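Example 3.2
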Amino acid sequence: MNSLFQVPKDINAKKIAYEAEHAEVHWSDGHRGLYPFDWLIAHQNPTNLTPRKYHEEVELREYKFHDPANKDYPTVPFEAVMSQDRGLSEWLENIQTWGFCFVEGVPLSPEATQALIERIAFIRHTHYGGFWDFTADMTFKDTAYTTEFLGGHTDNTYFTDPARLQLFHLLSHTDGSGGESLLIDGIEAAARLKKQAPGHVAALSNIRQPAHSSGNQDVCIQPVHQFPVLNIDPETLRLYQVRWNNYDRGARQYWGIESQEEWYDAAREYNNILNSPQMQIWTQLKPGTALIFDNWRMLHGRAEFTGKRRMCGGYGMVSFYDIVHLKQL
């Protein structure tokens, strides 16, 4: 799968051939695309669209950025989290402050891992089920269920209300290697983009993009309306949610050339920041240590791996995380 942002900015069509049901385009960078006519008709744009005015004020909530060079990650012991309110409070504060936290000493069982998630909130059920216990067997037609490299992304961009928390616990990895986990702070990336080009932040917080989940048979999920990459509270003008997933982004309709150029220029630069080594935390998950992160802030991914890995985990409900966190303050 090629990244959208590997396509040259000055790309142009060198040759177009029309067949019975599709157009074949030979692009200047050497790749070829086949575009069914019914798809082209469905995604054509009107010519009389007027540019929209965007709000450009974006504030960032209080947070701390964990330097990838620092291998001393926020960590709490399982026993303290499960038996003490003070341990739970420290765990929640780490998630709120840093965007992620490790939990050490977790028993090597799905039951103990599920109890850990439920210490915060009910498990969020989706089309993937509730609590997960899976291997890379393509049970679902999703890159997470393969052994392939998985680039940084947030989950559930195709939901109106994406899950706030996500937890992984590697139960075993046999007969192979690789599979290092990736974390990227989407809020810190937005802060850096704001310093470089405030107009790019305005484009990513105003221009909405479609998302969909349609890899599995009989599954086609879309949010109630389109959302921007950077979601801003309309009263405080504070960034509260990042939605970034190149795997699930759909084809946008009804936007003019000016908006298209603004969004792609901004998205390309944001993508460059996200993929810079100074932003990427790479760590190897180990049995007995769970990782939880804020899916509204942290992008996650995974290196390619060999062998058989057994992973368990789940999503945590949004509102219950907020309620429990406030009660612990």
